[in-house]
Design brief:
The chain has 75 residues and is an all-alpha fold. It has 3 helices and no strands. Helix 2 runs antiparallel to helix 3. The longest helix has 28 residues. It is flat.
């Protein structure tokens, strides 16, 4: 159950590649004077949504339960 070490390694490698490419692209666009997107902070709702997606994929029942408790408190 959950995410294996191999799956986690592949996910982190892919995430690292995407972030590296994004940073390179943003710097190139900035140097060229092209319009780029300004970095934005994630809202609490967006962070909770990402955590819920991760907990679902990882089948992390304790994290899902904690998130549900947090959502119920925010209502």
């Amino acid at each position: 159950s959950g995410v294996s070490a191999l799956q986690m390694k592949a996910f982190l490698h892919t995430l690292s590649s995407v972030l590296l490419h994004c940073g390179t692209a943003l710097n190139a666009h900035k140097e060229a004077g092209w319009l780029t997107l300004n970095p934005q902070k994630l809202s609490c709702s967006e962070v909770l949504s990402l955590l819920q997606c991760w907990a679902t994929l990882a089948r992390d029942v304790s994290l899902l339960s904690a998130l549900q408790t947090l959502v119920n408190k925010r209502k």
